[in-house]
Amino acid sequence: MRVLIVEDDPDLNRQLERALTDAGYAVDSATDGEDGHFLGDTEPYDAVVLDLGLPQIDGVTVLERWRNDGRDFPVLILTARDRWSEKVAGFDAGADDYLTKPFHTEELLARLRALTRRAAGHASSSIDCGQLSVDTRGARVFIEGAPVKLTSHEFRLISYMAHHQDRVISRSELVEHIYDQDFDRDSNTIEVFIGRLRKKIGSDRIETVRGLGYRLIDPDAKAA
């Protein structure tokens, strides 16, 4: 899952980038509204953390422009403690949730998990596909209750597929959602990660749809 942080405080920006990366996200960041708007307008994010008090272009204007252009990714806005009017303006502009500064990073991560799950149609913090379970809170994967040891990129891949299970996902879409902007993207490495995942979770759980991409399935349901 790929997230954009738009926050002008450099220390908070770095803190959030580290926390989200450690939680299994691919993370891009911007420190002003102009750069943030450009990234959100040109890259396919699964969620955005947006400060409203930004230089260049304020956060409300950035959000309004995204929504007017049809960008429907979930947006979590950050507001100052005493600026209740900012929250109202943010929601009116199309925000999905908000946090008031200062906040605990754990709460921001929990709200992000909830936003990305709901956007994909999942209610629980655990996303199941048959005997495979993705714990979005702990960034872990289980098969029949037993933990599966994965690298960070393998987890990003299986997490994105679990959020969108039973849908065919192209290699280019996977590249766009598991790598950050600065990563040397090569769609051929997706085949390598798919191969590794099949060895760890079972080859029959990831279906290849020739010419289109991959799909995460429940092999028991298919057999039935």
TrEMBL record:
Residues 2-116 form the Response regulatory domain. The modification 4-aspartylphosphate is found at residue 51. Residues 124-218 form the OmpR/PhoB-type domain. Residues 124-218 bind DNA. InterPro entries: CheY-like_superfamily, OmpR/PhoB-type_DNA-bd, Sig_transdc_resp-reg_C-effctor, Sig_transdc_resp-reg_receiver, WalR-like, WH-like_DNA-bd_sf. Pfam families: Response_reg, Trans_reg_C. It comes from the Bacteria. Keywords: DNA-binding, Phosphoprotein. This is Response regulator transcription factor. It comes from Hyphobacterium lacteum.
